[in-house]
Amino acid sequence: MISFNDITPAGYARYVEVDLGASKMIIISGQVAIDKEGNTVGEGNFEQQAEFIFSSIKNILKKAGGSFDNIVKLNNYLTDISDLPLFKTIRDRYVNTLQPPASTTVGGSRLVRNELLLEIEAMAIINKS
Question: Which InterPro entries match (predicted)?
Fold first, then answer.
């Protein structure tokens, strides 16, 4: 069974929960630094945007009954690949660095809004018991 959570007016789910029997897969849509009012958080500030995004992912995982220890895959999209060292420093405050998730990082010229500097997708497996 698949359940769609936090469907927004934009027509997509912030995350999807897939029942795997003894566990569930949480697929988190690309998170960006936009608050609930639609304002960009940390315009021009990569660190602020990254912290906001990782905090958003943490909240989604908590709502689904998990934590960053459950993350198995991250997809990272940076508009300036030279921010990668800072990204890794911030990411490592959240993920289990002893058993890090699989990860893909892509550099590109822009995201859905010009002022957004990164976007992160995540996938987690959470045991039900």
Answer: RutC-like_sf, YjgF/YER057c/UK114
Q: How far apart are CA 2 and CA 6, in angstroms?
A: 13
Give 23-56 pLDDT, tens digit per residue: 999 999 999 999 888 899 999 999 999 999 999 9
What is the rounded distance in angstroms from the CA atom of residue 57 to the CA atom of residue 115?
Answer: 20
Annotate 104-117 with b (16+ C-beta within 10 A) or e (fewer): ebeeeeebeeebbb
Contact (CB, 8 A) for 121 and 74: yes
pLDDT tens string 94-107: 999 999 999 999 99
Distance, in Å, from the CA atom of 54 to the CA atom of 34, rounded to the nearest integer, reads 12
Enter the pTM of the model.
0.91
CA distance 94 to 11: 29
